[in-house]
Specification:
Layout (H helix, E strand, L loop, with lengths): L6 E7 L2 E9 L8 E5 L9 H10 L14 H13 L6 E6 L5 E6 L6 H14 E3 L3 E2 L5 H8 L3 H12 L6 H67 L1
Length: 236
Amino acid sequence: MTGRVFEKGQIIMGGQRVGAFTLRCSHPICRNSADIINRSSIKSCSAAKLRVGFENKGWYVGDRISEDLCPDHARAALEERRARRRPHATNLKLVTTEGQEIMAVEPPKAMSRDDKRIINAKLHDVYINEREGYQTPWTDKKVAEDLGVPLAWVVEIREDLFGPAADNSEVREYLERAEKAKADAADLLAKIHTQIITIEGEAATLPKLKQLAAEIARQLDATNVTGQRIQRAVAS
């Protein structure tokens, strides 16, 4: 943005005048404006830093003051530009001099400044912060599909200007349920293994228990027979 000049003035804050840079929407019926407070030396407020600051507020910063747009009008203008773009690679059918058809791939176009601003404006609307990530149900992929741009472009802008993708509340809820289900399944599996070992141990001792029971029964029968003989002998 060579030669871009930002309006410098003052605003009232806490009853005091504070230096600030102001951006005004160029739409003919819009009165929106945005300020970036200047508490340091004017030399530290470069045009590049100011542009990033205003873009992080959702503004479209043009090469000239007459191109600046507030977030509301920026979205409408950028959507119109987006509809005219073809960022994806396109397969083209070519015919050789021998009449053979071959396919040629048109390489995807590089991300332009307008593309970056479009993605930045969208992310400003749907990205909460570095800790929470996207609003539900937005993701990198959904933003790319909504804007009709390559996923890699969204990832690049989001990582450079906003932060990690993180996730959204639906994804977190699903992952929490999955983790709980996994823990419950692991606990149940451990209990099943314990029961299997117990049952297998009991199965191994069952024949011995049957044999012991049969021996005890024989001894009991023999004792009964002996007792009966003694009773008859006493009675006679």
